[in-house]
Amino acid sequence: VQLQAFGGGLVQAGGSLRLSCVASGVIFSRHAMGWYRQAPGKQRELVASITRDGRPDYADSVKGRFTISRDNTKTTVYLQMNSLKPEDTALYYCYSFQQNYWGQGTLVTVSS
């Protein structure tokens, strides 16, 4: 299994970023996927998840600002992040629920 995430960067508060995670070595359409994040000194938390058939779920802290989606033809899961806040600063990881596997993270830094 490989999960390669990218799209992080430095953005000002109120800005947007889109994260992508490309999966390989799995039958992607059979996997529920998620995005976790871990801020310095804090536990890793689930930000958003999406079922195999595309039903999303979100942490309360990001509802209305983040959107998770997937493209099974590209074996990719996305996280569109709008209205970013400094407290969204973290290392973001994509996750396969079936494999219980995290990919490498991509760093998101939101400046105030």
Helix/strand structural class: mainly beta
**How big is the Rg?**
13 Å
Q: Regions with pLDDT < 50 over 5+ consecutive residues?
A: none
Count of helix runs: 0
Helix content: under 10%
Order of helices and strands: EEEEEEEEEEE
**Could you give the distance between the termini?**
37 Å
Which terms summarize this structure?
112 residues; mainly beta; seven-stranded mixed beta sheet; four-stranded antiparallel beta sheet; 53% strand
Describe, in plain words, how this protein is organized in 3D.
The protein is mainly beta and 112 residues long. 0% of the residues lie in helices and 53% in strands. The protein has no helices and eleven strands. The strands form two sheets. Strands 2, 4, 5, 6, 9, 10 and 11 form a seven-stranded mixed beta sheet that branches. Strands 1-3-8-7 form a four-stranded antiparallel beta sheet, with no helix packed on it. The radius of gyration is 13 Å and the shape is globular. The mean pLDDT is 96.
